[in-house]
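[INFO] parsing input record for D-sedoheptulose 7-phosphate isomerase
[DEBUG] input buffer:
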Amino acid sequence: MDHRLQKHIDSLVSRYPELSVCEMDIKKAYDILEDSYSHDGKLLIAGNGGSAADSEHIAGELMKRFKIPRPVPESFKEKLISVDPVRGELLSMNLERGLMAIPLVAHEALSTAYINDVDGLGVFAQQLYGFGRAGDVFLGISTSGNSKNVLSATVVARALGIKVIGLTGKNGGELANVSDVAIKVPATETFMIQEMHLPVYHCLCLMLEDRFFGE
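[DEBUG] output buffer:
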């Protein structure tokens, strides 16, 4: 791996030595994400409770700047200004390039309609079927690895040709078995697993930002 990207993993492990056991899986997950984004793919993310909050958090880090500036290309700035000289000028200075990430926990009207009308356990699967395309990536977050609605979404993902990354705890659960790569942080208590998930996905976001927007 390029030194520019490896430094983020090295920093992660230096701050959280217990996560050294996840290093190879973090690299594999990064490779899957990089390949997808390089081919105009996107990331779809789902989880429950605290993992739902993590899903939104990850999308927030990817869809705008995380640590480094992401100005829009000069060609797009010119188009903005040509459409509206005043608003376009302001937008050309403020818009930031993003890596498309959709948290499947964020669409309350759609989610509650599907839960009410059809099936509670298929709420992520339905959205994945609607939003997902071959070449995308599904990130399923489950501290136990056995969240039924997340596992249902993995079935749809695999049927569509979407790679699956699992982010879970030490035991991995069924999610680890059906994922292309599973990052199993070394903890078994839910809150401890969640505490370790955050630095892991921050590391992935830093690596992706550096790859696509760094010098």
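[INFO] The chain has one domain: 3-68+98-213.
[INFO] shutting down worker
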